[in-house]
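Allow me, if you will, to draw on your knowledge of protein folds for a short while. Thank you for your consideration; the sequence and its tokens are set out here:
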Amino acid sequence: MSTRELVVLGTASQAPTRTRNHNGYLLRWDGVGFLFDPGEGTQRQMIHAGVSSHDIDHICISHFHGDHCLGLPGVLQRLSLDRMPRPVHAHFPAAGIDFFRRMHHASAFEEVAEVRQRPIERGGAVVTGEFGTLEAVPLDHRIETFGYRLVEPDGLRMLPEQLDRFGVRGPDVGRLQRAGSLRVGDRTVALDQVSEPRPGQRFAFVMDTRLCDGVFELADGADVLVIESTFLDQDARLADEYGHLTAAQAARVAAECGVRTLVLTHFSQRYPELRRFRDEAAAVFDGELVVAEDLMRVPVPPRR
């Protein structure tokens, strides 16, 4: 059975706390793993969460501020220590390629794993596979920053009652899907007679940005939106000055873009009561709302 879930490894912003590690998020998507923004301590958080280095196929860095990337040296070295048998693709802003190279070889180690660098110049589709397409979209922070979106292509949902009606059974179902039509007895059955459109699912990851067109583009129609909410709305001026979002702004994006599950994260240590983030967001967004905690798992909701 396929698994689609977000494993939260860390939820703090610039400074970690006693209960919140720096950023880190692993998306499990039908056997493919996407590790987003591995901040300091990510390797140890993976152990606590029951995540193996072999679960990682893609590493996605939004930008090169330390709380989003200083765990990278440990993760890359762990891939070699664990003898990762397949290539791992690293996606990151091209402007930070020197930072990536320095962290890749921050200390001496026996490099066994193959890490393929995929610097991002302008955004758009960065990799396509059976999982769909991983896209990058520019955001508005103090340094070059990209958000990411995983888009599954639209497909078809087979209708059992229609298949039964037309006598399509067993291996013939697969033949019909591949060919688009199938001769059954004395008639031809078309695929659209026994199926209906099935929208592909979407996952969006938005870190460290002011409100901008890119935020709304990434969030549009997302089944899960993981989004920074560093500040509360009372500090909206500070949020804009430092290139961040408030909980209310994140919720507004989710509400306007038809998001199904909103995951707030990247909280400033200045706020001891995170219940306020939930209250502020819930006043704007009435969908599924998660205030992220370290080591929690958030399932991608079932298909519409």
